[in-house]
Amino acid sequence: MLKTALLFFLTAIAEIVGCFLPWLWLKKAGSAWLLLPAALSLMAFVWLLTLHPAASGRVYAAYGGVYVVTALLWLRVVDGVKLSAWDWSGALVAFCGMLIIVAGWGRA
């Protein structure tokens, strides 16, 4: 399960970077060259999703929980926004949901 969670976190980072770089280009007057690594990052995101051993719908559902946690950590570390107790509570609930889904992959 730890390997799956780490793979999900890598997947989330790839997706967030792939979306953050175009945002920098559009909203912060960044260079259009940011679109090249963004596209590569989104390709890595799609490829990483294919590495999971479960049906795609279950992978996407479980991935959503990890994405919530990763996006909030990005908000804290990259954007410098202090997270509230509500943020942390929501992240915990989402992550627990991912763990429940992943735990049932071999049993469904």
TrEMBL record:
Keywords: Cell membrane, Membrane, Transmembrane, Transmembrane helix. It is found in: Cell membrane. One of its GO terms (cellular component) is plasma membrane. It is a multi-pass membrane protein. InterPro entries: EmrE-like, UPF0060. The chain crosses the membrane at residues 6-26, 33-54, 60-78, 85-105. The keyword Cell membrane applies. Its main location: membrane. NCBIfam families: PRK02237.1. Belongs to the UPF0060 family. This is Uncharacterized protein. It comes from Pantoea latae.
